[in-house]
Amino acid sequence: MSTIDLAYGKGSISLDMDPSVADWTSIRPRFEAAMADPESGFRDAVANPIASEPLAGLIEPSDHVAVVTSDGTRPVPNRQLIPWILDALPVPNEQVTVILGTGTHRPNNETEIEKMFGADVVDRVSIVNHDAFDANSNVKLGQISTGTDAYLDRTYVEADKRIVVGFIEPHFFAGFSGGAKGVAPGVAGIDTILRLHRADLIGNENSTWGVLDGNPIQTEIAEIVAMCPPDFMVNVTLNGEKEISGYYLGDYVTAHLAGCDAAKHTAMQSVDRPFPVVVTSNSGFP
Prior knowledge:
Blueprint: E1 2-8, E2 11-17, H1 38-47, H2 55-58, E3 65-70, H3 78-88, E4 96-101, H4 110-117, H5 119-124, E5 126-129, E6 138-143, E7 149-153, H6 154-158, E8 161-167, E9 170-171, E10 175-176, H7 190-196, H8 199-202, H9 216-226, E11 232-238, E12 244-250, H10 254-267
Parallel strand pairs: 3-4, 3-8, 4-5, 8-11
Antiparallel strand pairs: 1-2, 6-7, 9-10, 11-12
Helix pairs in contact: 1-3
């Protein structure tokens, strides 16, 4: 008999796999090793981005910059990335606003924000929760081809320059996380978010793990975000310990595709047959 631990919450659940009970098969991701020096790796990636000018060359000293990142429900390494991004920006801290892409989640409280970013970042810049439910906090940019109204966060829209931060992993109906998804639904208005989660989209056969091409959810996200795109993207891949294993910085479309390709070859595993029963978890907190 062998035992396998499934990450669950802040701990794990142990399963005893008795071969006399069932023909067990264990399927695990091929996690990459953590980067030996993630800060040095970031400096190299931000100076040599994918399909983009270096970040410093995109930002004017007078620009007000919006940095969108995930809230506390996602394992984005904000405590590392945000200070490095701030150090790379040629603008005063007073001209930077960090927006937590809460989607429809509740706001993060002060304790959670300090845990996510550290006291130094909290003292350096303004950090705000996106509010999908407040009409005045969102701007209607227009309507996309399917009839979805595109509402995005006002602070994001009105910034001179916009940066989206996130991490890339397979997603069960959007194909992959990261990229434009950090903007919509991340900082979208409630009407837009609900449209992106409607039954006919999620039920589409192409709305599944690892599929971007032909995925109707990604198609709608792309149309919405193209109305007010980020000027720069900072995305990472993570290993099993949620350590940075790769950087994908630059153009939010091209760099994201590169990250998705890397994630597909590590996080996703092929199987030789379907299984009648699958026991899994959502990889633990967060």
